[in-house]
Amino acid sequence: MSDQEAAMAQAGRLVEELFPHALGAVLGGSVAQGRATSASDLDIGVLLPDSAGSGRQVIRHDGRLVELFLNAVGDISRFFEWDRARRRATVVFVYAQGLTLDDVDGHVARTRRLAEEVVALGPPSLTADQWRHGRYVLTCYLDDLMDTPAASRHEQLVIADHVLREAAELTTAHHGAWTGIGKVATSSTT
Questions:
Q1: If DSSP codes are grouped into helix, strand and coil, which group holds residue 2?
Q2: Which among 56, 94, 129, 165 is placed 20 to 30 Å from 182, CA to CA?
């Protein structure tokens, strides 16, 4: 059994144990992409009945870190739009690029098609006001960094972190690419 097959089996067991009422589930992230390392977590999207609600959980299962993306099936399209508006689309990519673990009544297939549509749209462009605000914030951080005394090394490092994050957000937006965390391979609109 390959590492990916073992991870799929573990993810499937977890969904069966913790979410027997699930309408479907996918395994996403680096495991689904075939790029997992020994330290990789399992990213699992679980579609739930509307009565169950939505949320996120991080747990340990059979010694492995697992991030659960729990979504009520009736909320998923609204959630995808919210995720897209944030320019992150983490859960969108879990469904668009994930491996199906279970698909009762075709809910995962429909969710995957919706996720693929959102990915194809790409992240929204920043408005003129958002660009102005981003440049303003970046300039403020740069000014603060220049004005911080060399003796305040920790303060410099904190401000430099803010400079890099703001510059990365603006650069990513300029290139029409998604932002996010983790190792998710994402496509851009450029």
A1: coil
A2: 129
